[in-house]
């Protein structure tokens, strides 16, 4: 039972009260559906009771108490009160939302047909005690706004009273203009037009008939507004031009120029003497394309790379014929007429001036590199002396004294044994006054300094600071690292060919740490089994590990010592002041350097720059400007 429980006033419900002897009846025994609640009081035998229906229901019951039992006199079942039909609305419909029929408690919702809108505020009706609440909602046709056009465009159709489904057609007044937008718009069910009123504007039509045009950008669009730009891509037998060349629609409906596909002026081959490997042909020859080229033999490239421009490859020509310049031979004269240059293979003759050798004419040839071959000096019969640097004449035949006549022999050696000798040890003066080989040269020291690695485990046969090239150094391994008793090293071009090879039965010597050292942590039978490493001052150790052990005959990987940086005059290149004292900074450390007086870092206007050190490399990110 719904609704608040009501205490029923007895004066209302008790029709008549007749007192008859007999058993009384109880209110709780009256149980009909949809009635007002009955209060549990006692009724005397013979008493009559009326029971009303609950709100919204129609009917009633009349009962009499007879010997403790209720007798039903009249029974009109409680049924829902009817509201009748809720009412149709023109151009709309309704739907029962709650309840099965139009009885008390029912609810209906109204909806307008497409193209109509509800003008009533409430679209819902309820069946209440007094009938349907609210009024039947009203649906009215939607109206689209009045169409306004400018003088350029005409609109036909219901432009003022547009209702759902109405169409408006537009046309341009001037035949020179095109509609920018839809030529037809519709009034939609929501009372808005399906699109804006179009404008008549100047357009350009894209009519590309060029067979080489393979694509326009944007693709597929044919009408363009003034200011819009189109690109074309041309194709055709590797002769493509105007790649994505763009052109623009102007205010008078014309393109700013007629797009065409031209034959590329960048040809393959680039010019007749350029040799292009085959794969170059697969590419296009569009504007902006770049090509590097090789020249066919006998030609030399004047530019390593060329770019395809409207005027063809630039720069050009790319391969020029290799030619020999007129020869310049002291004390000689060209036989015959002289030219400004000579083709490869050209032969000419020259003759030495009187008193110079050779006396007979010499024929020389322009070779494929543009050099004259067969050239000889015109000599007065002696070979020239040359400057001696790091080298000396060991002896001469017949002597070391000048002049060096044909047949004269010189033998050389380096002034320092540890220098490298380049060239021929002995050279001879030829009859034409030339040496048969150029003067030899000496340079570059090839000494070895004493080995530093694991020196404490060996005894050297010869203690020196410098060992000359190819010198052999014998060493004996010290106890207990003398499993192999001795070995030899050789200085080979400044480097020892190997390191000391000494080991014990248990462990090899601890790994050598460059720019660092170790201290012994533990030993076993005089063999070192654990060490700790430290780096030289200013060097930074890479690992913080107290002890490194030798396990099963192998040492744990040692750390490294990272190098410090020295602030040297390189900083002056960055317009920084070189500190007056030597400054070293450790790896990963920062240091602030002042700009030169009056200079700063530009954008930040700081008069200093922070520099840092990375394993010996000074890192300077900024310079002073
Ligand atoms: C109704 O009233 C009678 C008499 O007062 C009592 O015996 C009975 O228990 C009552 N029933 C209820 C449901 O209160
Ligand atoms: C280094 O030179 C010595 C002496 O000639 C030679 O015995 C040894 O085998 C060489 N070592 C290597 C690795 O070539």
Automatic annotation (TrEMBL):
Which gene codes for it? cfhl3
Q: What is this protein called?
A: Complement factor H-like
User: Which InterPro entries does this chain map to?
Assistant: ComplSys_Reg/VirEntry_Med, Sushi/SCR/CCP_sf, Sushi_SCR_CCP_dom
Q: Does the keyword Signal apply?
A: yes
Q: Which UniProt keywords are given for this protein, alphabetically ordered?
A: Disulfide bond, Signal, Sushi
Q: Where in the cell is it found?
A: Virion
Q: What is its main location?
A: virion
Give the intrachain disulfide bonds: 112-139, 144-187, 448-491, 507-550
- Give the species: Sinocyclocheilus rhinocerous
Q: Looking at the record's lineage, which domain of life comes first? A: Eukaryota
Instruction: List the signal peptide residues.
Output: 1-22
> What PANTHER family would the database entry show?
COMPLEMENT FACTOR H-RELATED (PTHR45785)
What PROSITE patterns does its record include? SUSHI (PS50923)
Report the residue ranges that make up the Sushi domain in this protein: 81-141, 142-202, 322-380, 381-444, 446-504, 505-563
Transmembrane spans: none
